[in-house]
Each structure stands twice: as structure tokens, then as C-alpha cells.
TrEMBL record:
One Pfam family linked to the record: EF-hand_5
The name this protein goes by in its record: EF hand
Tagged with keyword Signal: yes
Organism: Albimonas pacifica
InterPro entries named in the record: EF-hand-dom_pair (IPR011992), EF_Hand_1_Ca_BS (IPR018247), EF_hand_dom (IPR002048)
Signal peptide: 1-21
Residue intervals of the EF-hand domain: 21-56
SUPFAM superfamilies (alphabetical): EF-hand
Taxonomic path: Bacteria, Pseudomonadati, Pseudomonadota, Alphaproteobacteria, Rhodobacterales
Length: 126
């Protein structure tokens, strides 16, 4: 579970240190997020994946994520995502942070992210 999050963290931009995600894991996570199977992640698919993951991680169901709930967290990334500085991530903060990464990864600027773009983005983080 942590590794998947790590991946979604790196690929999708969440709060985890970059690296460590093997190519096969990236591919598996990508396929899981690509709901319509067209080989591209669009914003709807991506946000749905982030919202779903947020719910899975929110152990106490208070609609806020603490660093403890997330597990292994890159401190700086968490602080950057925590816009109001209350030490927890709201869904809006989490999605907002993720969207920044999504558009960073979208090197072709067409509003979708492919596996090739994600892998290139991950390499750039390492
Ligand atoms: Ca798709
Ligand atoms: Ca919580
Ligand atoms: Ca916050």
C-alpha cells in the first residue's frame, strides 16, 4: 500500500520521496488509473484516482490526511502541499498539489498524461 502511494506520489505527485518505483509498478498503477483504457490519463481519471486514494489513506475518516496516515512522507512535499499550515491535508490541498504534478508531467501540454510522460517525469525527479 505504501509503495502504491509512493508511486502515485511520484507519478501523480503525492508527498512521497521520488524514485523507488519500478517500471512494472508504474505501469500497473497507470493501468489502474486509466479508467477508459485509452492509454492516457485525463484530468477526470487522475482526480478520481487521487480522491479514491485519499479515502483509502484517511484511516479515521475525518476527511483530513495527517503525515501518519499517509505513512512514509517527504516532509518538504507535505509542508508544501499543506497550504494553510494546519499540519493536515484536506482533500482540496491534496488534489491541488496533485494537479501541479499532473501538469508538470504533461510535457506535450495536451491535458493528458501518458505512461511515457510519467516515466520521463519520474526520471527527471531522480
Ligand atoms: Ca484514459
Ligand atoms: Ca484523517
Ligand atoms: Ca492543511
Amino acid at each position: 500500500m505504501r509503495r502504491t502511494f509512493l508511486l502515485i506520489g511520484a507519478a501523480l505527485g503525492l508527498l512521497a520521496p521520488p524514485g523507488l518505483a519500478a517500471a512494472a509498478e508504474v505501469e500497473t498503477a497507470f493501468a489502474a488509473m486509466d479508467a477508459n483504457g485509452d492509454g492516457m490519463l485525463d484530468v477526470d481519471e487522475y482526480v478520481a484516482a487521487v480522491v479514491h486514494r485519499f479515502g483509502e489513506l484517511d484511516a479515521d475518516d475525518d476527511r483530513m490526511l495527517t503525515a501518519t496516515e499517509i505513512g512514509e512522507v517527504d516532509r518538504d512535499a507535505f509542508v508544501a502541499a499543506d497550504r494553510d499550515g494546519d499540519g493536515e491535508l484536506s482533500l482540496g490541498e491534496a488534489v491541488g498539489d496533485r494537479m501541479i504534478r499532473f501538469f508538470d508531467a504533461d510535457s506535450s501540454r495536451d491535458g493528458t498524461v501518458t505512461l511515457v510522460e510519467i516515466n520521463a517525469y519520474l526520471e527527471g525527479l531522480e
